[in-house]
Amino acid sequence: MTELASGVVQSVDWIAVAPPAITAVVALAVLVADLFVPAARKPVLGWVSVGGLVLALLSLLPLTSGDRSTFCVVGRAGQCSYVADHFTVTVQLLVLGGALLTALLSLHNADDLPPGEFWFLLLSSAAGAALLPASRDLATLVVALEVTSLPSFALVGLRRGDRMSGEAALKFFLSSVTATAVTLLGVSFVYAATGSLHLNAVAVGLAHGTGQLTVLARTGVILTLVGFAFKLAVAPFHFWVPDTYAGAPLPVAAYLSVVGKAAGFSGLILVSVIAFRPYADVWGPAVAVLAALTMSVGNVAALRQRTGHPRSAVRLLAWSSIGQAGYLLVPLAAAGYAADPAHEVGTTVAYALMYAVVNLGAFAVVALVAGARRIEDFRGLYATRPAAALALAFFLLCLAGLPPGVIGLFAKVAVFSTAVDAGLGWLAVVMAVNVVIALYYYLRWTALLFARPATRTADSGAAEAAEAAEGVPAASDVSGASGAVAVPQAPGRVPVSLTAAIALAALVGVALSGAPQLVLRFASGSLF
Known about the structure:
Blueprint: E1 2-3, E2 9-10, H1 18-33, H2 43-58, E3 68-72, E4 80-84, H3 86-106, H4 115-131, H5 138-156, H6 163-194, H7 199-207, H8 212-232, H9 241-247, H10 250-275, H11 280-303, H12 312-335, H13 342-368, H14 381-384, H15 386-400, H16 406-421, H17 425-449, E5 454-455, H18 458-470, E6 485-486, H19 496-514, H20 516-524
């Protein structure tokens, strides 16, 4: 413990900071090892990364017993830059677990990606995502958000020689830079109005602001929230998502849809519910409108995806993730109307846990079916890979909120109830309509899994030609002859890591469906 002249005690609780610290150290170790490991032994780097993520997850166990904090200001209770409470541990479990599933998907990825750079960037982004929910001052929060984002758009463009990958990375980069600029401008306004960066102190400053400082503070709050809206792909700031997911390597798209979104939502929760709590009358209605717009745009666009269009499977999951982001915003909007927002924030966290597990599972099955880029390519999957078809059907039904995906149904009901309890009846109606809309495209994909395989047509040939123009390998054919049946690739040896990812996601999804109340009860008590 070293005391500085400024009165700040720089004490480091290494147990509290272990999850992001371990992930960052392993990232550096993998990058250095890549310089010395021969090409034939490069796969070892992937298993080292998986081991590092498992170790980071195990380091969460000592943090479940109580709150820990570090980097605190002397003599000012509650002003700490890093807090490892139940909220932090829950979100860190989500992001590190999501990164682990992404790593399992990536161990046998068909894309030709440089292993050293890939694993370093993935672990670096995961370290930032793990740091973000523990951040309790605006400076640390913005830095953690950028540590999460910067490696992400490098991952998107890591597939060298792929035009779509490069365009996706550029679009992602430009939107990220815009979001960062807007966020920093908003944070600077808030700091000028309150004189502090710690979230609790910002809340006190906003509550006692007067005159011109109030105008400055309100402007800063709005700009900060707009910056987060860019990061979270909230409509109308969602334009970069479909092309980015479609152009990125499949594991990277899965990572962005879950880990990046969860990290961004945790930051939005911290700034709105803690720092900007005195201005709940400003951000509460705004978030409600954004929630309605986001879920409507995402679901309507997903509804319009053609099953035979190139990359329609990933694009549908991309639009679906936008719609799911709208649902995640509903409890947060309700928190602006609640005296104690613990239950509302807990509902958001619980829904995020459900979404993370089943969405990563869906991406894992898409990765398993080699060459399947169109939804139509999954027609008759049950005939060739029954276990994979059943798993994907379960994941899609969870996203739709239908049995046997009980956790999806329970989470949607919990989100719906928060809107009703907050007096946001109109938002509950919008959500109900969107849930019905989403049923169509989720059930359409599910039905294709068990449909009879269709014969090749002129439309399928045109779709394959369009895929070839984009550099996408066509779906494999059973016989390879003219008029062959267009079904997913015949069963072969499935990589152990990919099987483990699907099995783990399915197992967690079934466990959550068996005891949904426990999840929501724990998450509701996870707020600070």
